[in-house]
Design a protein that fits this description.
The protein has helices at about 15-30, 30-35, 45-50, 95-110, 125-130; strands at about 5-10, 55-60, 65-75, 75-85, 115-120, 135-140, 145-155. It has about 160 residues and is α+β, with helices and mostly antiparallel strands. Strands 1-2-3-4-5-7-6 form a 7-stranded mixed beta sheet.
Length: about 160
């Protein structure tokens, strides 16, 4: 891939909002036909997530190469809501670094688990998350989407 320069993971700033929306649009566009609707991350309120301190950005050469949204969802668990990488940067390990950064934040906050869900049509995720230590906990239709739920125990939580 055409990775240029080091990638730095940092907390998102208000000025990152437009770039985050752009990455979400481009990263999830290929799933619209398979799902039959726009995936939820394409229409998320990233401004609110940024204001809450829930967004991490992967920055490379001054550009947003990807981002993740994670936050506490229960006293013992955090939720990994979205991971998106710009299509031209996919395959460089940026998504994995973002997930690891979210897991580290959750663990440092005392969480015992990281939880997430993905759409059943995002078949790559169904093999990715188990490779990263997540186990499937259930499947359900939620908000019009067929979702697969995962959970991972965190060290230190």
């Amino acid at each position: 891939m055409s990775g240029s320069g080091a990638v730095r993971i940092r907390k998102a700033k208000a000025a990152d909002e437009a770039a985050i929306h752009q990455v979400a649009e481009r990263a999830f566009a290929l799933y619209v036909a398979a799902i039959g609707a726009r995936p939820a991350p394409m229409d998320a309120d990233y401004r609110a997530h940024i204001e809450n301190g829930s967004v991490l950005v992967a920055e490379a050469a001054g550009q947003c190469a990807g981002f993740a949204v994670c936050y506490p969802e229960a006293p013992d668990a955090w939720h990994l809501e979205t991971v998106a990488v710009a299509p031209e940067r996919q395959g460089e390990g940026i998504g994995g670094r973002l997930i690891a950064a979210c897991e580290a934040r959750a663990g440092e906050a005392g969480a015992a688990f990281m939880r997430l869900y993905t759409n059943v049509a995002m078949t790559g995720n169904l093999t990715l998350y188990p490779r990263l230590g997540y186990r499937e906990t259930r499947r359900a239709r939620q908000h019009g989407f067929d979702r697969v739920f995962f959970e991972k125990p965190l060290a230190g939580g």
